[in-house]
Task: structure prediction
Amino acid sequence: MKIGIEAQRIFDPQRHSSDYVAINLIRSLQKLDQRNEYFVFARPGEDRSSLLEASNFHVVEIPGYNYLHWEQVQLPRYMRRFKIHVMHSTANTAPVRREVPLVLNLHHINFMDTHDRTKAETRYQQLSNRYRRWIVPRVVDQAELVITVSEEEKQRILNRFPKVQASRVQVVYNGVSEAYHTVNESQFAMIQKRYKLPDTYLLHFGSTETRKNTHRVIESFTAVASRISEVGLVLTNVSGAYVDSVLHMIHQSEVRSRILVLESIRQEDLPRLYFGAQLFLYPSTRESFINPLLEAMAVGVPVITSDLPVMHEIAGQSVVCIEPTDVNLLTESIISLYRDPTRRLVLANEARQLAQDFTWERTARQMIQIYESFK
Result:
């Protein structure tokens, strides 16, 4: 059986989270599946080492003028050229016209909500979201099977696209890489020096998207800092200028020296960054699967997150769930958990145990069954 996997951006050094999902899935498929023949379709890129070929795994680099031309014109041509039997599109969008069954990974449909757009969106992000809003309703209706990442997101998809039968939407959980289970103190010491990390810090993956709640995390930290002198805050994915603007708005600029902003970090350093944190803060107001939550759980970092169905679905009782818009509650939850090492240890152990179930091998086995159902 010839299986096509669309992984357009896997050789792009500036990969998205869905690209890492594709890479981890493909690597696990290579270890497990010797029966079928795979064709991984990607755009040429600088980081060609991110995925190696195997005897039954062929990497096919397809040129294209832009995202739309690559996916809607070039990809169907190459599917025909290699006589693909089933096509797996891994990142929310897919060709509208094709001659084979489509398995569509719809990680989330946040881009369908226009009310949560922010002025901080780049021109590229604006164009990408417009493309998704145009293409996704069409391919969701056509796909033989839609794969999503949680029961919560499945229900959102069914509510948004009422023509889609529930039997055509299947939940396949993402995995967590082994590196998150095996990180240690010496590995952390190495990156602490590299990034000048404080000895004691809270960790938050920031964003200018309103739903990620970074502005409230910063506001909460100013209150935490006034009561716990030794703790700092480490933020990623936002600029120092953004942090400065939030602090200026709430008249707390004096706390700036205790906030470290990492505007870029190596992917291989992420497990070590989690490892050094006292707490991981993830109070999003809306999420689909929450890979960062699972990664923190695997490392054994206590988590404060939002009281959302998807958080309970994945993490159970191993994390602290709060109302994400309540800054005072977030502050008190941070202080209470930080000052209770026994509870932190209990939560960390429970979280590690739960995270053991989320492996890329399990994800790959489920996907092989799905592919072979189209024989």
Q: What stands out?
A: Residues 179-355 form a domain with the Rossmann fold fold (CATH 3.40.50.2000). Residues 337 and 344 are 7 Å apart (CA to CA). The chain is about 45% helix and 15% strand. The longest helix spans residues 123-142.
